[in-house]
Specification:
The protein has 159 residues and is mostly helical. The protein contains six helices and no strands. The protein is 83% helix and 0% strand.
């Protein structure tokens, strides 16, 4: 039973890595869950309560930042409310039509259209779209870093 749980936990950890790119899967949450599964399988020996509090808090923080950072990137690069709204709408539409790449392309194009609706120039619209793209990349990078660290600890304590 222990080996089965460890294999399931490893699969959940790998799904966590994939979930950092695919928005349908909560990457950091799955990565955290994999650590819980491993600890359960090994009678709660590998990780202490302090480790779980830190890793759980980091998973929550990274997930929160994943929603905030793209809007912050758009604002930093001068996007209007229309650009930010357009990026969110574009991200959702892109996800459903050409996943997972559609998230990035959709957010960029949505920000562009939003800025065009706001009657801003092409240069400002492109800059806002770039800000959204940079923000999304930073969010994905943060999630990948967290999930990679969780996978490292998983494999380290697996044996």
């Amino acid at each position: 039973m222990t080996i089965l749980l460890m294999v399931i936990g490893l699969l959940v950890a790998l799904a966590g890595i994939i979930g950092c790119i695919l928005p349908a899967l909560p990457g950091p949450a799955l990565s955290f869950l994999s650590l819980v599964i491993l600890s359960f399988a090994k009678d709660w020996e590998p990780f202490g309560m302090q480790f779980f509090i830190v890793m759980g808090g980091l998973a929550a923080l990274v997930t929160f930042l994943d929603y905030v950072v793209p809007a912050g990137g758009a604002k930093k690069y001068g996007a209007s409310k229309y650009g930010v709204t357009g990026s969110i709408v574009g991200m959702l539409i892109g996800f459903f039509f050409i996943p997972p790449l559609g998230i990035f392309v959709g957010a960029f194009v949505g920000a562009l259209f939003g800025e065009m609706i706001a009657k801003r120039g092409t240069k400002d619209a492109l800059r806002a779209g770039w800000g959204v793209f940079v923000g999304i990349m930073v969010g994905v990078g943060l999630k990948l870093a967290y999930s990679g660290i969780a996978l490292f600890f998983y494999i380290k304590e697996m044996f």
